[in-house]
Amino acid sequence: MDFLRSAVELLGREGAPEPRDLKYAVLHLRAGSRGHLQGEFDEVKHRTGDFTSCSAEKAIGRMNATAGLTLETALDPKDKDLKALGQLRNWLTHFGHSDTVGAVQARTLPVLVRLMDFVRLDVLPNGGDASESWTVEQEMHRSSAETQHVAAFVARRQAEIADKLVSHETTTIACSSCGQHAVVFGEGNAVNLTCLFCGREYGTGTDAAWEYIGSDPHTSIKEGGDDLPSCTACGASAVVLVHTAAAPDTDSYRCFDCGIGHEGVCVNCQSAGYLAFPGGAYDMCDDCYEITLDRF
To answer: What's this model's pTM, rounded to 2 decimal places?
Structure first.
């Protein structure tokens, strides 16, 4: 509750939270979400504090597996919001990463809400100390009010950009900073892609495509990899598998330069387009397939 309360206060600070406020809001929320269950339990080490606490994923897994414990809150150790919060925490701690107020608030809000539900539905009903439970309830009341301010900001910002996203669902992806589906690609490689929600800039369509897969041309070539598949519509090497706003749970090949969707990528020439036998053992484009046939 201390960590949760601190995170909410820092995120909901009057005016605009300072970068330092955002940093410690993320660190404290992540600390609150992982709990402090240790790896192999040892009573002596536990009392002296000489132990390494386990990860959020392991802590949630243990609670879900505990016999006789039925959680009202759906806690998934592989939850995408929890994992994204962990990544943000690592960026802030180890790489000096900074982000906008809107990006941090949007990224942390789902975890805040889930943790507060967990305390309300699973912790308080099982509390043994009446006075302690009353104190936690008061803290929850204050934290809920401040969380609503953060939620109101996110909802207001979503409403402000809604019109700009209409009819772009198939070429809109989630921003790696704020997590919102607000990055519209496919308007030409000269355009600087920018998240409409938080303002995060990605560079050209090709730059954004590389960042989307978590790599870059230099690293790929150095490690013996290839360039990104080329688009048969515009010629740009900017085709990747994406999850768009239109189909957030489905993989689809899209060109980040022109936005065109493709059936697949030819295993021979690495161009994206229609395939002679999509889904087969050898995904080839029509041209490569005909060349292969001519050899026999």
So the answer is: 0.76
